[in-house]
Amino acid sequence: MATFLYKLGRLAFRRRHFVALVWVALLTLAGVGAASAPPAGSTSFSIPGTEAQKAFDLLEQRYPGMSADGATARVVFKAPDGEKMTDKANKATVHETVKELRSGSEVASVADPYAGHAVSKDGTIAYASVKYKVSGMELEDSAKDALKDSAQDARDAGLTVEIGGDALTATPETGSSEVIGIAIAAVVLVITFGSLLAAGFPLLTAIIGVGIGVSTIAALASALDLGSTTSTLASMIGLAVGIDYALFIVSRYRAELAEGREREEAAGRAVGTAGSAVVFAGLTVVIALVGLSVVNIPMLTKMGVAAAGTVAIAVLIALTLIPALLGYAGRRIKPAGEKSKLLGGGRAPKKPGRPNMGTRWASFVVRRPVAVLLLGVIGLGAAAIPAASLELGLPDDGSQPVSTTQRRAYDLLSEGFGPGFNGPLMVVVDAKDSDHPRAAFTKVGDEIKGLKDVVTVTPATPNKSGDTATITVIPDSKPSSATTEDLVHAIRDKGADITSATDAKVLVTGSTAMNIDVSQKLNDALLPYLALVVGLAFLLLIVVFRSILVPLKAALGFLLSVMAALGAVVAVFQWGWLSGLMNVEETGPVMSMMPIFMVGVVFGLAMDYEVFLVTRMREAYVHGEKAGQAVVTGFRYGARVVTAAAVIMIAVFSGFIGSSESMVKMIGFGLAVAVFFDAFIVRMAIVPAVLALLGKRAWWLPKWLDRALPNVDVEGDGLRTDAERWNTDPDEERKLVRA
Fold it and tell me: Which is nearest to 138 in space by CA: 214, 61, 43, 31?
């Protein structure tokens, strides 16, 4: 591995014009494809194997032309103070609005509030339901504008009018905080390298990689049904790892220059050593992201594969474009320890020969490993306590900012019709095998009326053939509550009894039931997914480190950091701690896919730091240093760069906290906190403490396994010259061979 990458790095350095041209061509090609492709919209949400999805598919089959996946909108009207929606003038305004709404070419139907009994008991609030022929992703801008204009006309007539539903779904905005995150990353890079040019390379290559990845996603969005959130998450992860991977290679290049090597040789060695770590770190991230497909939720699979593709591009750019740019830079990139003149270069250091911060910290940990280990584990354990109260759900209009019309419509409907009105349950009765379909429909309605937490049960609405009917159930509690979830399970339990008595199948669907099924499916998939991803990465790290205990320690440390991060997410987004600082306007259940998505992404990123930091220790140990000293050496060369990489990643992820999309905001916060815990507590404190306690046992590997495993040479031993090998203590070499 190291030898191949060494040759690749030297080739890219020499043929820099060709390499740069290839990447510019790829960026241009992706950009042209994105510009000519239809824009991304909301991903169609399907959950194979769930009852809610089976009911949805049955509706598509038994109600042809119903447009079950069509966009919906609820235009909610509220009368001025002292008036009612049944007053003559207000009624005339609503009728005129309904007439305008029906004129759209993409509109399938509009329900008149007065004909459909959609007026609140006190007469102050009413709503008109609009059904479209196409999904929200396919809805033309002209149709959305017509919807907004109709509402504005009613407002001009004196009514309060808000619009709910998915017809006005917009692309999430990340805000200026994303730019601030990139700016922080730039400052950290300048401080780390002491050079504007060296600092600019990781930013430039990361932006190119994300540009290619996101543009490719945009080009394929319509064909593969990729939503806008897919590209947002791909850019979040791709930008973070892209900067980090380039940072490690540039840093190693400067270290090789400081040892007196020629620039082409230094580029080859940097790619051969740090590049090997980049390859395996990238592999762990890709495994974790692609592994999301085992959950069998198409949207999550697409998000994972798209982000994994962006990570793969980041790895390839780091291995090829970085050495090419280093070739262009020439002598303007200084060896490690030297700064450019603009940033104070040329002055003698204040205290020459003084150990750096990484060396001093590692020496402290090696002297007091037990105290550091206990403090780190107890601290992360305390942070993880809120995770015991984790409640899962999917965001709806009730989690939108109060500044949006969707949220205000949600609140008006709750005020006029009760909290459960925003999450109606649709019960589908399949009586095709029943001898008395109508009797079955009636029995289902009567049984549901007798359940707790039920406000309204509408009469059954059969299809044309009379073998299937739908019944709408309005709960007494809001969609995301545990009470509503209990009601869904109660209806399904009743359905089993009804099936045995009438041969009619009862299925519960609707957005609320779908959310419940998604949460359950994600919970069920978490342990198998964790076993798959951790298992594959564990095997990969055994190959990289040629050790059993080091990968085991890496996996256990990851579990600590991810649980602590989940605890922080619960504290902020569910309990409301620091919610004002994070601009969280509505607390509630944590997004259902948050735990499994965080496990996937954080595991990959955690292994990044493990590989980058511990490969330096492994390299020192293989080259003859004692186990304790190898820990200090690894920190001397790697701590500064890993710290910079972690700060950059935290800054990039934190930039997405400013997103208007609650899912993106939560993921940005969760990943930023997880990186902080993993990089600064697990990798910087717990890892060296454990390695110091284990000593040379940390690098033990059974002889039979050592012979069976391929030698990937991540530490770059194959690149050492004979002179370098002669400088190794022969006693240490013999000890290493015997070990």
Answer: 43
